[in-house]
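Lab notebook, design round three. We kept the backbone fixed and only want residue identities now. Task for the bench partner: fill in a sequence for the structure below.
Input structure tokens:
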């Protein structure tokens, strides 16, 4: 019974590891822990049987599926499967109603036989347009009445095609960890103004996009600075606001006086000079200024009903209720501490009376956090417009992280959706015998479906906002997610299936509406069906050059072997920049922080890296991009230009060149699996300013265009 229930709820029995030769089986202990996390009592076989029966009874009481995602051209669209309730009457009258997203209503009537509960097919005489529609069915007879509702989501067959958005051409761009960017204008961390600077320079060199790390909201304090562990994925980090560009600054003498004071300017100079992002220092410097500017906004904009005030209320209307809920969380976290799980019990209920009362009592503070999101959205929109004006076909390329922090607002506001007893990660592989536990709470796919995929839809809309392309981190999660019982090693984890066809369908719909491309990060333990499904839905795969080699021979693939439907890059945020990779800087750092305590293992990894380096250089020599003596006479300038020329030769429709590589950085921004008390991941800043970088001829040389 335990295994039957686990299979029914999508817990995978076994999987092939990354080598493709070792089958890893899910234990019954793991099944029990994960089912318990889903809310099922499975302590004994009888209780597991009872849980199965409850699921069956719940299905029998569903007169229509709560949600259905179907392609517009599918014959299944017009076939509506319902369950006729048991009624003691010969004839049961039914009414089928469709209300489209545009508010147009249709209604049809008919009669079917009564008696025992049974499945029945109804026909939808019209073809609904693409979008989110409400379908309802009512059964009446013998004095009884039953009603049920369905969210009908009609989707296209594919995401936005690259040839449409790129007009048949390929495109290259710069990818950057925005927070690491150093410039003469930012206040110690990269911001929206820096995006504009990068875009304008890239436009002069034929680029198509500026790509960046997830911009999701973070706590910006302590170890809570990873862009891949945000407090919410629905809203963004105000750290990226360029304060000098906030419109209210021109009307706020108090803020200008504060900024121009000697003490403020000294603090600003200190922050700009630091080798690491001082998240707390940057926030402390900005916050008093932003408070003044928000007060000016309330006094001069809201009070006078200006176009900026109207834009603000339009933004609030579009993003609510989630925006106000997030702003309420931020207000409460300032009062009660950063972890919602430790708040007093009444405050843990996001929809409770106590939270509602405090929201009213502290309305100005709640509005402050809404205003920050509004202004950041305006600045990012302005940066995107500047990028398009500079000639970038895609403008900005954004990143959607795989999950949200357990202590954050997404989990606080959606306690049924996020599970407290399971986290997500990755299984053991050739790089980690223990696998990875990312500490992010798992999302229950059945609850996500029951709620009509509302959270998934909002995630995508937030990701596509102001973007010409969206990268989905760990896109394998659209197929199945690796769950780890809370507190356990990833070796005790198991895969749990997602409703992949539904998720991809909604992704295609939002991609089309945003006129934006989709990139799926499909690295790691990849099920065999993944490439085919990505191709079917028009999602670009990820091809990372340092991984693109034959597992057995070690030979790097030629440029011609790369697929067209892909984003080709040299590395990722989990790898060191190219210079550091060649020098095995990441292996050295892992040894220094104690992650590779065994000298034999460390030596073996260094030897393997040397082999990979030599193989990479050989592949570039074969491609005619390096001279034959490159193994003994190679500079970083030559290598970077050759590698970039190589991936720009591939047929892949998108090519991403790392700003860190163009700047010859060597230190990684992240060491996977190493906690931040041992290595300051997500904090390393670039050594040069954008102004210095873009004035240097070696940066243009690093684009590799001279070798094409």
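Proposed sequence:
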């Amino acid at each position: 019974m335990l295994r039957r229930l686990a299979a029914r709820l999508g817990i995978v029995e076994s999987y092939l590891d990354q080598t493709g030769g070792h089958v890893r089986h899910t234990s019954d202990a793991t099944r029990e822990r994960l089912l318990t996390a889903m809310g099922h009592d499975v302590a004994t076989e009888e209780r597991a049987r009872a849980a199965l029966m409850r699921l069956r009874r719940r299905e029998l009481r569903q007169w229509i599926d709560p949600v259905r995602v179907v392609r517009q051209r599918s014959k299944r669209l017009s076939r509506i499967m319902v369950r006729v309730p048991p009624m003691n009457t010969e004839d049961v009258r039914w009414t089928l109603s469709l209300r489209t997203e545009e508010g147009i209503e249709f209604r049809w009537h008919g009669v079917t036989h009564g008696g025992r509960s049974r499945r029945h097919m109804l026909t939808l005489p019209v073809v609904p347009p693409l979008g989110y529609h409400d379908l309802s069915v009512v059964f009446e007879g013998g004095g009884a009445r039953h009603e049920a509702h369905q969210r009908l989501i009609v989707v296209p067959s594919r995401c936005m095609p690259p040839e449409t958005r790129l007009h048949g051409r390929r495109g290259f761009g710069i990818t950057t960890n925005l927070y690491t960017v150093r410039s003469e204008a930012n206040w110690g961390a990269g911001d929206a103004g820096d995006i504009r600077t990068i875009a304008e320079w890239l436009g002069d060199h034929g680029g198509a996009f500026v790509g960046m790390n997830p911009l999701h909201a973070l706590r910006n304090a302590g170890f809570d600075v990873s862009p891949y562990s945000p407090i919410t994925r629905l809203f963004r980090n105000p750290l990226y606001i360029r304060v000098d560009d906030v419109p209210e600054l021109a009307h706020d003498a108090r803020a200008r006086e504060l900024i121009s004071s000697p003490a403020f300017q000294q603090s600003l100079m200190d922050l700009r000079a630091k080798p690491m992002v001082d998240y707390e220092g940057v926030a402390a410097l900005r916050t008093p200024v932003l408070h003044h500017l928000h007060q000016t906004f309330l006094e001069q904009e809201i009070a006078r009903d200006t176009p900026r005030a109207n834009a603000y209320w339009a933004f609030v209307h579009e993003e609510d209720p989630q925006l106000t809920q997030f702003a309420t969380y931020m207000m409460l976290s300032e009062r009660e501490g950063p972890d919602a799980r430790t708040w007093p019990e009444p405050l843990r209920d996001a929809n409770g009376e106590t939270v509602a009362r405090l929201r009213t009592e502290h309305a100005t503070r709640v509005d402050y956090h809404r205003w920050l999101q509004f202004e950041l959205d305006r600045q990012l929109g302005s940066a995107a417009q500047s990028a398009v004006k500079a000639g970038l076909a895609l403008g900005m390329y954004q990143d959607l992280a795989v999950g949200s922090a357990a202590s954050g607002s997404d989990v606080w506001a959606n306690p049924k959706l996020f599970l407290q007893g399971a986290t997500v990660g990755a299984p053991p592989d050739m790089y980690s015998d223990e696998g990875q536990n990312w500490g992010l709470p798992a999302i229950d796919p059945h609850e996500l479906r029951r709620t009509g995929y509302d959270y998934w839809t909002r995630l995508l809309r937030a990701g596509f906002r102001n973007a010409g392309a969206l990268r989905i981190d760990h896109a394998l999660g659209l197929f199945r997610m690796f769950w780890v019982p809370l507190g356990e090693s990833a070796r005790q984890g198991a895969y749990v299936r997602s409703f992949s066809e539904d998720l991809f369908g909604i992704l295609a719909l939002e991609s089309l509406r945003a006129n934006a491309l989709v990139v799926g990060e499909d690295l790691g333990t990849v099920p065999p069906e993944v490439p085919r499904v990505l191709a079917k839905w028009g999602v670009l795969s990820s091809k990372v050059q340092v991984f693109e080699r034959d597992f057995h021979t070690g030979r790097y693939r030629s440029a011609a072997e790369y697929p067209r439907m892909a984003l080709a890059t040299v590395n990722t945020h989990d790898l060191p920049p190219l210079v550091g990779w060649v020098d095995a800087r990441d292996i050295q750092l892992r040894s220094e922080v104690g992650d590779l305590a065994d000298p034999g293992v460390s030596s073996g990894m260094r030897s393997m890296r040397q082999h990979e380096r030599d193989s990479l250089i050989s592949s570039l020599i074969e491609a005619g991009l390096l001279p034959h003596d490159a193994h003994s006479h190679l500079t970083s300038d030559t290598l970077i230009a050759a590698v970039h020329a190589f991936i720009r030769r591939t047929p892949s429709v998108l090519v991403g060149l790392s700003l860190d590589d163009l700047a010859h950085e060597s230190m990684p921004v992240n060491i996977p699996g190493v906690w931040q008390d041992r290595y300051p991941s997500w904090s390393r800043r670039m050594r040069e300013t954008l102004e210095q970088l873009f004035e240097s001829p070696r940066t243009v040389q690093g684009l590799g265009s001279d070798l094409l």
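Keep this in mind before ordering anything: Residues 531 and 550 are 17 Å apart (CA to CA).
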